Amino acid sequence: MNSKMNQKINQVTENTLVVGMDIAKRVHYACFVDDRGRMIEKAFPVNQSKEGFESLYEKILQTMQETKKTEVIVGIEPTGHYWMNLAYFLDQYGIPLVMVNPLHVKRSKELDDNLPTKNDKKDALVIARLLKDGRFSYPRILKEIEAELRIGSTLRSKLTEDLASIKNRIIRWLDRYFPEFTQVFPAFGKMALATLEKTPLPQDIKNKTAEELVFLYRQVEGMRAPQLPKAKLLIETSINSIGLTEGTQMARQEIATLLRQYRLLESEIESVNSQLAEMA
């Protein structure tokens, strides 16, 4: 650990311009110091835009020329995803971007003035001074296939979370209007979804024959061979159901909406998985 720390400290020499930046959604603040933490440029605003980034780059070049610095390092305290645009911009010019621990920033502020309160300008200076002490780490700037895989994996995780949320809402709907449904269908297979699409409520089922139900479910896309025994069991459970019988018009609308969302998410997850498999 000491060896790694020493390597980081050695990266900041008297020839290095140290840039600390406090990251925000719209306007960042940057502060320049030397290898001993002495301020070269007070904190100034940097807009989250192409013009703002280019202005920062020009100011870095100008300051390096004026102070006869040959190297530069930019450090940030990670704040959500707002730092990423800046990181990729700086990477184009070969300027390394590193990160400091938010806990270190907080503690350093308390040491400076015994005030841990948030202040963008003060934070930029604190971050810069942490850099010269080697207290930083390197983020991975993903490119090409790595970037595609990371974004795809994140998207898949989010879609899977959304699908689980919709599934839970369907279960809550069933608890109210057809509590016995899960006795017939423990999982949401094709026939279970077909049943909810064509005959979501017990009163839609109990006056039909098993053959009529099978005929209905065959009309659902992807449902080739509905099981007759399942249809018979559905009729038995629907007859003795304790499901609610009030508000059924909007209950039908609710379950139809949930089913559309469920199927869309399943389709999107399948599409993302297919693309990721091709890339891997």
Protein architecture, described:
The chain has about 280 residues and is of the alpha/beta class. The chain has two domains: about 140 residues, YqgF/RNase H-like domain (Nucleotidyltransferase, domain 5); about 140 residues, Orthogonal Bundle (Helix Hairpins). About 60% of the residues lie in helices and about 10% in strands. The chain is built from eleven helices and five strands; from the N terminus they run αβββαβαβαααααααα. A five-stranded mixed beta sheet has the order 3-2-1-4-5. α6 runs antiparallel to α11 and α9 crosses α10. The longest helix is centred in the middle third of the chain and has 34 residues. The model has no long low-confidence stretch (mean pLDDT about 95).
- What is the share of helical residues? 55-70%
Report how far apart the termini are: 34 Å
Q: What is the CATH superfamily classification of the largest domain?
A: YqgF/RNase H-like domain
User: What is the alpha-carbon Rg in Å?
Assistant: 30 Å
Helices and strands: which structural class? Answer: alpha/beta
Total number of beta strands: 5
Write a brief caption for the model:
This protein has eleven helices and five strands.
